[in-house]
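Question thread 4412

I'm putting together a teaching handout and wanted feedback from people who do this every day. The idea is simple: show students a protein as raw sequence, then show them the structure tokens that encode its fold, then repeat with a second protein so they can compare. Below is the first pair exactly as I plan to print it.
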Amino acid sequence: MKKRIILGALLALIAGLGLAAAQDMARETKSEVPELTAFHEIIYPIWHTAYPEKDTKSLRSYVPKINELAAKIYAAKLPGILREKDAVWKEGVAQLKKAVEAYNAAAAGKDDKVLLDAAEALHSRYEGLVRALNPVLKEMDEFHQLLYVFYHTYLPEKSYDKIRGDSAALVTKAEAVVKATLPQRLEAKGEAFKKAAAELLDASKALDAAGNAHDHAGMEAGVEKVHTKYQALQALFE
């Protein structure tokens, strides 16, 4: 009986560790900073109600909430999938902090025009930070989520079976990127996007072929090439 209890406890521990690892990976592959998303709770009433109505009394009352939510952004860490944007994030956070400090100073003063300008600047800095992190296309984001697992887990652990098992899905996601339509503001990059997306698809197909051939060296080189091609695609919009 004692052995059964111990075995049961071990199985429960293993299952728990597996669930925790899966949850960690889910967080690391999601292109979102929850603390930044939460800041919208205060930006919304500022920008959509108090600012257009020139309700400076409400704008002044928001200071504690602004500071509370902003402090969480200052301390936030990017998920793994966004770490390549660390420099942009830090610069954006620094600019947001300056805007928050300016808002605090304006709210403590008596010049309503200065306060309205500070509210506009705070909204602008917040929106800029959101745009800096958001993927250009959902199809690229979905591709990157899977590629992240290939590059940061499967490749370093030499998990060839997992590379082979998921490479077809990577091809499918690359095909979706090729078929995606750029937003109107980026139409000028259309030809360059088509070329880079086609190269990403070709690299993904080559990786899938290496997996089907059980070519370990080819799989390793293939993951590296897909990663390089994705970086080239992403660079078009930076």
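The second pair follows. I'd like the answer to focus on this one:
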Amino acid sequence: MNLQILQNQRLRLIVAPELGASVVGLELHRQGFWLPVLRPTSPAALEERHSPDTSSYLLAPYSNRIRDGRFSFAGKTYLLRPNWVDGQQTIHGEVHGRPWMARRLEENRLLCTLDSRSLPDPNFPFPFTIEVQYRLLEEGVEILTRLQNAGAEPMPAGLGHHPYFVRYLGHSGEALLSFKAARVYLTDESRLPTRPAEAIPAELDFSRPKSLGQAFLDHVFAGWDGFLRLEWPGSGWCMELTADPVYSHLVLFTAPDGSLALEPVTHATDGFNLMAQGWPDTGVRVLEPGEELKGQIYIRLLSGF
């Protein structure tokens, strides 16, 4: 598999265009060693072309689950094929396992593109194009994503990113997470919302830094202010992630492998159906023909903490 490496004296970013333009490594150089900031991608994941096991992958033209793979829009009902390992769920969009085109714009800038009309078996009823641009800077990574309606009819749309951060950086203590949001969706056993987002209970309040411990969390926060911080005690380093306002929602998922998924997304889980049911503030966008949805994310690694 052809991997694209963007590297400077502090950071190394590795991208796999042939596997959904996924990030397969983000590492920090310290005292002669490269320390993973995102969970490492195994050779098996690359060989098996299994994007959910990468370090970070893209979510488009929707994020998270669609209940029963079925949604309604503009008076029509659409059924999608299951696309998850359980053979039942339709989740995380249509692009993360697909081969993308890639080209270097400059030494530390990579552009990856995909046109759904080129796919032999598209699993979304509306044609679209998408591009992601990775730019490695001295202190971090800038990610710009554009999704465009390539059809002749309006389409519901959303996007997001699914990075898995390590909880321990080298020999640090467990990471402390902090962010602010207005509300949270509470879900049923299938992790789908059962009612509109509501006030955040104390156990899900991360307005002050705290560790996750043994808690299992898989929650979508609404009214996220676009900023979060992850501190690794004892390492002297922290990560700050900022996102454009279009990323109005944040998914927090404690993965079984011990990593921590912090996912900037534009809309709620099952957002297409929630919008059709008249729920407020789902974050779903309706793109007219030729219209685009775009947003930038910036991940910074800072020392001195």
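Top answer:
Good format. For the second protein you could add a caption like this: The helical segments are 43-47, 271-276. The chain has a mean pLDDT of 95.
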